[in-house]
Specification:
There is one protein chain. By secondary structure, the protein is an alpha+beta fold. The chain contains nine helices and eleven strands. It has helices spanning 3-10, 18-32, 42-63, 91-94, 99-111, 129-133, 206-211, 260-263, 268-282, and strands at 118-127, 137-144, 147-154, 160-167, 170-180, 186-190, 196-204, 213-218, 224-229, 236-239, 249-255. Helix 1 crosses helix 3 (42-63). It starts with a helix and ends with a helix.
Length: 284
């Protein structure tokens, strides 16, 4: 992230003072700080967290004047693959096997030998419910800026794991965010505190809906979950602490209509009675 990009993120220009930088950052932080993100969807929360993260990095780099000597690398074209790197300084340390990266690493080490730099790369890894329940450790292939790499994943670190690598004083950190694979029976919501809400959908008939019923489902941990659904129940019910890692189990109730074939089996007299009953029930 160069100086101009930092200024653009905060909505500033080259004439901005340190006070301008602080005010711009405070304005963004008040709207996007993770502590402020309540009752948002996962997608909305992730977007605002990214805005806050980028604003924080831009603020820190501008305030600390991290751009001394940055133009010395203008003649080196490292390709569009590094466009999303959050801080260029650790590239040499992570990708020093190529000749261009060796040159970069050596120059960076000499130029910034008295300063500490750190680059943070983000990537996602998909794990299964079984992996999470058993807190498995395993080797996974991850992608860092489009470059495949292998890493040992420890699911006990869910929902994220940090891996740090150093080379000639330059530090490169990879932030691995865990995602759960899709399942035929359970959907999920990963909360900011690392708990996981499991979402299970059941389809019920009108008879069950109006009468109430009991239900048993097989949990991911192998145990049965028994619960009662009252008549005219809400569209969903919450069973606390029966998700994963302290999360809740959310049971969504989906009402299904009888098929035409079954309705046609009802004689006209009974059908008219049903219509009259429904009319009374629907009247305000």
């Amino acid at each position: 992230m160069n100086k101009q990009k930092c200024l653009d993120i905060l909505g500033l220009d080259n004439n901005s003072s340190s006070n301008d930088i602080k005010k711009a950052y405070k304005t963004i932080a008040l709207k996007t700080h993770p502590d402020k993100l309540i009752d948002l969807t996962e997608e909305e929360r992730e977007k605002k967290e990214l805005i806050f993260k980028n604003a924080s990095e831009a603020y820190n780099r501008l305030i600390n004047d991290d751009f001394i000597g940055e133009n010395i690398f203008e003649d080196f074209d490292f390709g569009s693959i590094f466009e999303n790197i959050e801080g260029f300084e650790g590239i040499g340390g992570m990708f020093s096997k190529t000749s261009g990266m060796k040159m970069f690493s050596g120059m960076a080490s000499r130029l910034f030998e008295n300063r500490k730099f750190e680059s943070i790369f983000k990537t996602d890894v998909i794990i299964s419910y079984f992996d999470l329940l058993n807190e498995r450790k395993m080797d996974k292939e991850i992608s860092i800026c489009g470059i495949p790499s292998k890493a040992t994943i420890d699911c006990s670190n869910f929902p994220k794991q940090m891996i740090t690598r150093s080379f000639q004083g330059l530090s490169s950190t990879v932030e691995i965010n865990f995602k759960l694979e899709k399942d035929d029976l359970f959907d999920n919501l990963i909360n900011s505190d690392g708990t996981v809400d499991l979402i299970y959908t059941i389809k019920v008939s009108h008879y069950q809906y109006y009468k109430g019923f009991s239900y048993t489902l097989k949990h991911l941990d192998g145990n049965d979950v028994n619960f009662n659904v009252k008549k005219l129940s809400k569209k969903s019910l919450k069973i606390k602490k029966r998700g994963l890692r302290g999360g809740d189990l959310i049971v969504k109730i989906q009402l299904i209509n009888p098929s035409n074939k079954k309705i046609n089996c009802v004689n006209n007299e009974d059908y008219e009675k049903l219509l009259n009953i429904l009319k009374i029930l629907c009247e305000e």
